[in-house]
Every structure is written in C-alpha cells, then in structure tokens.
Amino acid sequence: xxxxxxxxxxxxxxxxxxxxxxxxxxxxxAKVGLEGYTLHGLRHTFATWLLSSGVDVGTVSSLLxxxxxxxxxxxxxxxxxEKQRDAVxxxxxxxxxxxxxxx
Length: 103
Fold this sequence. Notes:
By secondary structure, the chain is mainly α.
C-alpha cells in the first residue's frame, strides 16, 4: 500500500479502512476514552460482537471492507463455531421437550 494515505473503501454507504492501514493511523486514544486500545483491536471487537449477535458473515465481511467472506470465516471461525454450538443446544432442548417448539 505504500506510504500514502490509508485506502478507504465505500460499500453501501459505509466506509471501511483497509486493515493494513490500521497500524499507520494514529489517534489520541485517551482523548476519545479508548486508552490502551488499538484500531485493529477495535475492528476485531466490532466483527466479533456482530458475529456473536447473529449478524451473517457476508454482512460483517462487507462492513470490514473485505471482498470475500471466506477471509472473515478464516479469521472469525471460532465465533461462528460457538454460535453453531448454541444452535445445537437449542435443538437438543426442543427434542427433549417438543411442546416447547410451539410456545
């Protein structure tokens, strides 16, 4: 990417900063109440929270500025696996108490 300005991508009206640029962007973290956090860490937290909340991988990938959801799956697969475990637990409960499905 060179030493120029970070590339900013726009998709559906949302700006996404290329991940390589995050290391070069400086913020006064104490001034904005985020002392001890990096932009890359905040980006990772953002993606993890969205996936943990059930937002689909394609949407999260797009918001991160990625062209392929497969990259997001590779990086955040552990979050998705936990959501799959949650889904299996729900099915287990429903199998144990089929009447619960109609409640």
